[in-house]
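Course assignment 3, question 2. Fill in each field.
Student: A.L.
Task: Predict the tertiary structure for the chain below.
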Amino acid sequence: MEGFKSIVDNPPQLVSVNKKHKKSIYLLAFALGSWQIKRLDWKTELIARFEDRLIRPPLPLPPTIDPSVIADFDYRRVFAEGRLRHDQEILVGPRIHDGQDGFNVITPLERGEDGSKILVSRGWISKVKKDQATRREGLPSGPIVVAGLLREPFISNMFTPQNIPEKGQWYFPDVEAMARWTGSEPIWIEATMSPDLPMALNFEDKGIPIGRPAEVNLRNNHTQYIFTWYALGIATSIMFYIVARKPTGRRLRRNVDW
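Answer field:
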């Protein structure tokens, strides 16, 4: 083909590999490893703080709550009394539980005579129990006491689909949006239950939401990251030392026009 040149038609040229690139990789890996040590200290302290709150006696939720102080009570065990507004129920999903597809049930809890409401994450139900008509036992009508963990609002990431409240499609628990949609306060409680397998199976069959265990579920992989970055730094430094010992720079062959 006229005008086409293959790699065979052009003479190769020797080019030097810049040793500064290897040194930069070493310094970057060392810096990231050191940064992960700080992250490990921060995450360990955070988990310890949350676990300390878990072992404290549960607090009665006050009639009025300032959302700005929720961070100081994150993972604090609380209880509240009221009536569940099943007519304003929100299903967040899909959510997987023990390999099965389903939804997380969010129901406003109406408290007191003023009709103020908070949001309660009651737990997981199977996909086949989506219709309320199939789970009457999971819809208590009288006054109840909800026990759970007071939690901070969630923050979505760039991969989370946008919720479409008008179509009843909720993909992540946007506490502020849910509060506006149901006329509730932006207060979020995650109902807890004992991790009892037979009880959970019974709940699943009846469509009763399976609450979360009262434990801190934050991942802490920073030790693994520390070893990874430092290992990369050590490996890079060894490679840099081997290359630096050679009298001439390491060379690669490349094509002039490729």
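Instructor remarks: DSSP finds four helices and nine strands in the chain. Strands lie at 12-16, 59-60, 76-84, 90-97, 100-111, 116-126, 144-151, 188-191, 251-255.
Grade: pending
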